[in-house]
Every structure is written in structure tokens, then in C-alpha cells.
Design a protein that fits this description.
Length: about 300
């Protein structure tokens, strides 16, 4: 059957789910004949049946009388509007942990597995999402805005106490995320370093535009191994991050399984799986107004945003 990508696009009727086949974008509800598929969340809430319906629709797209538009003329939005939660893995690439330890003059960290540790995550709000190609306003908010390319996994069915060996069965697909981080907003001013209440994860990781996401979702069936994908990030055409998802400390299955022990993951929820070395903090660099950030992940595509 024909391959496809799942997207959200801006139409005259507002945000709607789209199916991308080759270089054409079709309205998902109209192409499948299923009114509930007018949103990506509607599709994900019916993911068990939707997978077959979408593949059949994609296979018939070329002969369909359904209207389409070229993808490069479509206004794509963040593919999931709006997930109930965005879970972000912290310190999850060996090379990134090493560069941050070096930055803060800390000794090398042992593999967390050897210490019996589990993955840990913080949360970004759904309202922090930014669309592909959108301009993110940062200059008023932070002087040390950082970039972080991440593979993002989209949940396709409720997941609770999921065993490790079945964890990837709960993933509907994958997209690209930039976990923008305001490094100078991560701690509360005038609170002693020794205080357990010094950290401010909301200001650090949550602000308007803090999570560029997209440009679309590639079905999990098209990516057999999420732990072997190249990923790169450029700022103004200069490469900053260049790695592979196999460098994760805790793989996606471990992350999903562990998260599901605490909370039931819901269709549309997003897991950001961590970022590799090459972040701005370790380079003594930060994003500024006018910068263009381009992210690329193998088998998924490119996501670009400008800073203002």
C-alpha cells in the first residue's frame, strides 16, 4: 500500500487533519469519508482502525476525485493540536551528558542503568507548541535561548503499565521537535543554590513557542527502528548537532514503559526523547533575533523556524 504522512493544515474552515501522499495534501476526513478524521486527535483516538483506513485512502489518492493541494503551498501547523501532555526526557544522550558535565565542572556520570535508575521527564504544555515555519519570539524573554533537536513519538492508544517488549506497539508515529530552553530562566533569582525550590522548570521550558513541532507525523510502521535515525540541527546554515538516536541512554521503549507506570498515556500525547551533544550552552552560544534554526531527522524530514 502507498505510504503517507499525517499532518494538520490551515484551511478556510480552520485547522484540519491532512494526509500527504507524494507531494499532495488531501483533507483526511474527505479522503477517507470519515467525519471524525477531521482532526489528528480524532484519527489517533481511532488509531487501531484508522491505520488501515488511511493506508487504503493513500493507495486510492491518485485516482480519487478528492481535492488536493501541493504540500509546498499548504500552511502546515503543529501536527497534533493539542495533546493532553508533552513529556520530555532529560539528560538522555551520553554525549550531551558529557558536554554538560564538562560545562559545570562535574565528574563523568555512570550509566544510569548500572545505578538502577529509571528515565526521568519534565513536561511542556500543549500551548507551548509552535508551527512549522513559524516565527518564535524570544528576544523579550531570554538572552540565553538554546536549541535542542529531539525525536518525538506520538502515542496511538491508551498506555498503562506497558511491558517493555510491547511499548513500541503504542506508538502511532514520529515527528521532529525543538525543545527550546531559556537557560537564564531555569533558576529563581535570589533563591539560594542549596534550596530545593530554586529550579524553575516552567520558565525554563514553557513559554509561547517553546516547542516547535512537525512538519508531519510519519507512521510508526514506516520506521522500523526508532533507535537508528540520524538527526541534525543547523543555526543559520551552520551545523550544531549531528548524532544518531542510538546514542540515547534510555531508549524510547524504556521511556514509554516507565511513564506508563505513573500515568495513563493517551492518544496524541507526545514523548520528546532527549537531545544529543551540540547545544548552545556547551558552546557558549545562544539564539538571537533573526536566527533560522533547521532540524532534520532521517526518514521524517525537516522542520524550520525563525527567531525574533
Amino acid at each position: 500500500m502507498a505510504s503517507y504522512k499525517l499532518a494538520t493544515y490551515k484551511s478556510a474552515d480552520g485547522a484540519r487533519a491532512g494526509i500527504i501522499v507524494d507531494d499532495k495534501l488531501f483533507d483526511a476526513a474527505k479522503l477517507t469519508g470519515k467525519a471524525a478524521y477531521s482532526t489528528v486527535l480524532g484519527i489517533l483516538n481511532d488509531w487501531r482502525a484508522a491505520q488501515g483506513a488511511l493506508k487504503k485512502a493513500a493507495a486510492k489518492a491518485a485516482k480519487s476525485k478528492a481535492k488536493s493541494i501541493p504540500v509546498n503551498r499548504a500552511k502546515l501547523l503543529a501536527p497534533v493540536r493539542f495533546p493532553s501532555a508533552i513529556f520530555c526526557a532529560g539528560a538522555n544522550y551520553t554525549d550531551h551528558v558529557t558536554e554538560m558535565n564538562r560545562l559545570h565542572n562535574r565528574p563523568p556520570s555512570p550509566d544510569p542503568h548500572t545505578l538502577g535508575l529509571k528515565p526521568w521527564h519534565f513536561i511542556k504544555t500543549a500551548r507551548s507548541l509552535s508551527d512549522p515555519g513559524a516565527t518564535v519570539r524570544i528576544s523579550h524573554y531570554s538572552k540565553k535561548m538554546d536549541w535542542e533537536i529531539e525525536l518525538a513519538a506520538i502515542i496511538g492508544k491508551p498506555a498503562k503499565d506497558v511491558p517493555l517488549e510491547k511499548a513500541l506497539d503504542y506508538v502511532a508515529g514520529y515527528t521532529i521537535a525543538n525543545d527550546l530552553s531559556a537557560r537564564d530562566r531555569g533558576f529563581r533569582a535570589q533563591v539560594p543554590e542549596s534550596s530545593p525550590f530554586r529550579a524553575d522548570w516552567v520558565a525554563h521550558k514553557n513559554f509561547d513557542g517553546a516547542c516547535p513541532l512537525g512538519p508531519w507525523i510519519v507512521p510508526a510502521s514506516d520506521i522500523k527502528d526508532p533507535q537508528n535515525l540520524k538527526l541534525k540541527l543547523w543555526v543559520n546554515g551552520v551545523i550544531k548537532q549531528d548524532s544518531n538516536t542510538r546514542e540515547m541512554i534510555f531508549n524510547l521503549a524504556e521511556q514509554l514503559s516507565h511513564l506508563s507506570t505513573s500515568i495513563t498515556l493517551q492518544p496524541g500525547d507526545i514523548i520528546l526523547t532527549g537531545t544529543p551533544a551540540g547545544v548552545g550552552a556547551a558552546r557558549g552560544e545562544a539564539l538571537k533575533a533573526g536566527d533560522e534554526v533547521k532540524l532534520w531527522i532521517e526518514k521524517i524530514g525537516e522542520l524550520t523556524n525563525k527567531m525574533a
